[in-house]
Amino acid sequence: MRFYAQGMGETRSSRRLIRQAALVSNPATRLVVVRRMYEIRFPEPLKPDLTLQQIRGMEGIRVREAYAKASRETGVPWTGRSYRRTGWAAADLPNRALSVANSALYGIAHAAIVSAGYSPSLGFIHTGMMRSFVYDIADLYKVDITIPVAFHAAAEGSVDLERRVRTLCRDYFHASRLLERIIPDIEHVLDVPIAVPEEAAEAAADDDLPGGLWDPEAGIVGAGVNYGDHLVGEPR
User: Fold this and answer.
1) Phi and psi (nearest 5°) for 51?
2) Domain span at residue 70?
3) What is the pTM of this model?
4) Minimal CB count within 10 Å: which of 17, 67, 133, 205?
């Protein structure tokens, strides 16, 4: 349920990472991606004239209504989201359950992001943190997953709360095939036209090749070219 280490992932290609970096570095394309991330959360298309501040206000209302609905359905009292790292035991049951459920969701989102060749750090809505993109993607699913899971677990009392929340998350992730949905959703929100350098096809096909070399004039040039006393791109 926690993502704490990584290897090569499922792809050696940097194509997706380069595209993500290009999109997040351009304010115009970044805004398009941000709007797409919010649009996924609403059943109806967002009006094109809405500002980002207005969309965030709508999202705040949507989340508050989700908390209120879960509270009504489970009978668990709700006074608002409150979380402090230094005061875990002082939090009420639904807040503790939410923190555990969100942590599990971050873990599976992080695993999907890395395995697909994206960076967990290059967020579009969130920024400046090592898991900014993880938070972006996890937020797409919280209302449908972690909020109802947390409130149902809290309704059963405090005994083994954390373990029960993790078990419920595991079962829901599996039943809803969440891991299979995350990467297509990422590809959808990042499907914004932008010019990115083409990567040499053989670099992705052969694990032993170092890939192409960047050149300010020619773009991507081949590795293994003799530019002096050694072959550039080959081990010394």
Assistant:
1) -80, 165
2) 15-189
3) 0.82
4) 205
Residues 79-113: tens digit of each pLDDT: 988 877 676 677 889 999 999 999 999 999 999 99
Residue 220, in any domain of the structure: yes
Quote the CA–CA distance of 113 and 182 in Å, as a whole number.
8
171 and 81, same structural domain? yes
CB 224 within 8 A of CB 231: yes
Helix 15-25 vs helix 27-39: angle between axes, to the nearest 10 degrees? 100
Shared-domain flag, residues 149 and 38: yes
